[in-house]
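Marked as duplicate of an earlier ticket. Keeping the data here for the record.
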Amino acid sequence: MFDLQSFLNELWIARWAVLFGLGTTVAISALAIVFGSIVGTLVGLALTYGGRFLRLAVRAYTDFVRGTPVLVLVLASYYVMSTVGINLTPFQAGVLALAVFCSSHVGEIVRGALQAIPKGQMEAAKAIGLTFRQTFLWVLLPQALRQILPTWVNTAAEMVKASTLLSVIGVSELLLRTQEIISRNFLSLEFYFFAGALYFVINFGIELFGKYVERKTAVAGQG
């Protein structure tokens, strides 16, 4: 039977462990999403506007990464990288694995959004003397964002959920901390439910951020 008083007492005792795990999850997810989005944007540009060989190379990258389980990427980032002389901490390996996975998905999202924009807009931008960088920032990106954001939010939420896999390489993220707490007090139902609520709050925050940016881009488009 659920004992609220007992749960609150145990939660207070374990408050720093929970906060540390939550902070680690947020930090890893945020870094993976930011770096993955940056690299993914470059991947999307290469797939859309790159030369033939560049497109083939980037296509092979995206297909390989998207077809590989996240857990395999996590293990490879930590164990395989060390065999070639690149020694990453568990935190760094986790960020790398999730960022690589995120970039492949964002790349496809960006490619689809850019290809949906009429080619005449690119030609018009060239006609008035805009460079490719200026065309992308001022013409293509504002329009593409409206199509990118809904799917990007889903991808970002997936990165948060995928961060739970990093416990296998020793990253003390929220789920691992929760399991350690449960091993001491055996309040599994209560603490797993609480951890789930925290994951929901993180993903809900991402969704709110996406809607905020979507409103801003809509207003900018109308103006």
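See parent ticket for discussion. The chain is about 85% helix and 0% strand.
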